[in-house]
Design brief:
Chain lengths: 153, 316
């Protein structure tokens, strides 16, 4: 018997080791519930996130990418998150121009003590991704006239 | 101007102030110029200045050792400054022979304009705000908009921003942004879906020759991410998905270094309108961080510094 299941977005999260990853950890140890749509990758600093990672994730079929690091001024390496901020800012704008929905590229500041905020961010982002539908940007079957991707609005 | 350049270049080599001269000499095809890289002072007589000096010579700066005298148009000088900002070039090791640029003539546009091959044309000259083309002894004037490279139409700084010797008076070329931005504005009117389809179709032609990357003075990585195999970020086979990722990421990587010199578009063998990507990135960087590449040699590279408060509205 085939069961119809609702489509669930897949989200990849690049979380900084010092803040956001610890924040996600806190959410877990405090038994807070958040959508299981996120797959977490630990990075040493949000400044480590090359825009290439974001594109690669979208290429692999992830529906969205979340880059999360320490609040401004609280970076373990002093300046990493400021650099990440510049990078994500231009990436988001540029990808929007090329034709990728800006909702697919998300960023947040989550500190190690903000387990609750982490759950909220993941819930919000997941909700946003459900609204714009699956990522068919790089799909092989994609038709030239764009009819295939109607779900993307 | 040309004679002065030859004289200066010769003097620089003779006095041992530079080891190399990088400039332009007449190319093998009609009107075209080709880069001249020489150590020999007698070669200085071959140097030319004309509105066909397409190449951005800054690209060769990192490839020669020693002190260099280099001919630079407005955009080239900014590429050089950008290399100085990135510590790829030491300012004291370069003698910039600045050429106020009248705008570079796109021979392909000229051919389309008069419907003749360049070999059949007698002469092409810049006259005031016109480009004069002489065919069969008859001279016709065309507005510069129709004959110059798109990026020259958008050029804000035709006169070099940084130079040691300025050859001639500052350029009178005035930017015609609406004409230069036409393609980009058309793209912006489309919805995201249509834009993506547009780029998908364009990059289906890409053969991944990497000419755009190799000609770019801002693309100076020893090892490019496309050639990494562990992990392999993009496949080396030319498929539109990977071609597009390569170009998008290349554009993001050169953000703040790209001076909109238009070389990537010019060298593309399959005519992908790459400038519609690079120019947009140039404008995004200007809009978000009020940063224009290669304007101030003391400035820090865009991606290595920050302001406390900026571009934060989208952070959750």
């Amino acid at each position: 018997m085939k069961q119809e299941t609702e489509w669930e977005p897949k989200l990849v999260g690049f979380l900084c080791k010092w803040c956001s990853y610890a924040g996600a950890d806190l959410a877990g140890t405090s038994r807070k519930k958040y959508p299981a749509n996120i797959r977490i990758i630990k990075v040493p600093c949000s400044g480590r996130v090359d825009p290439l990672f974001i594109l690669k994730a979208l290429r692999l079929g992830f529906d969205g990418v979340l880059v999360s690091g320490c609040h401004p001024g609280e970076c373990h390496y002093q300046t990493g998150n400021y650099r990440a901020r510049r990078r994500v800012a231009i990436t988001k704008k540029f990808l929007e121009y090329v034709g990728i929905e800006p909702q697919r590229i998300q960023a947040s500041w989550v500190s190690a003590s903000e387990g609750r905020k982490f759950t909220e961010v993941v819930a919000e982002v997941t909700k946003g991704l459900k609204e714009i539908g699956p990522n068919q940007l790089f799909s092989q079957e994609r038709q030239g006239d764009g009819t295939k991707a109607t779900a993307r609005g | 101007m040309e004679q002065r350049l030859q004289h200066e270049a010769k003097a620089l080599l003779e006095q041992g102030k530079v080891d190399w001269i990088i400039g332009f000499e007449p190319g093998s095809l009609k009107f075209a110029t080709t880069p001249l890289i020489t150590k020999d002072k007698n070669d200085a007589d071959r140097l030319v200045i004309n509105p066909f000096m397409v190449n951005n010579l800054a690209n060769f700066l990192t490839e020669v050792k020693g002190r260099v005298g280099i001919v630079a148009k407005g955009c080239d000088s900014r590429s050089i400054v950008s290399l100085i900002q990135d510590n790829k070039v030491v300012r004291e090791d370069v003698v910039i022979l600045g050429v106020p640029c009248p705008g570079i003539i796109d021979l392909n546009k000229v051919e389309r304009l008069v419907g003749k091959d360049r070999d059949e044309l007698d002469d092409i000259t810049r006259e005031g705000d016109k480009v004069a083309i002489k065919v069969d002894g008859e001279k016709k004037g065309f507005p510069v908009v129709e004959a110059l490279f798109d990026n020259c139409l958008a050029c804000e700084f035709p006169t070099p921003q940084e130079y040691d010797i300025l050859l001639g008076e500052p350029s009178t070329l005035v930017a015609n942004k609406p004409a230069a931005q036409e393609k980009i504005e058309k793209l912006k009117e489309m919805n995201p879906e249509q834009r993506w389809e547009f780029w998908k179709n364009e990059f289906s032609r890409c053969i991944r020759c990497y000419a755009c990357r190799n000609v770019c003075p801002a693309c100076f990585c020893q090892r490019c991410f496309v050639e990494e195999t562990e992990p392999q970020w993009v496949l080396p086979v030319p498929r539109w998905q990977d071609n597009l990722i390569f170009q998008i990421v290349r554009n993001i990587h050169v953000a703040g270094r790209c001076t909109d010199c238009g070389e990537c578009q010019r060298v593309c063998p399959v005519n992908i309108p790459l400038r519609s990507l690079t120019r947009e990135m140039y404008d995004i960087v200007d809009e978000l961080f009020h940063f224009k590449a290669g304007m101030d040699k003391e400035a820090l590279p865009l991606m290595t510094h920050y302001e406390q408060e900026e571009a934060e509205d989208f952070f959750r």
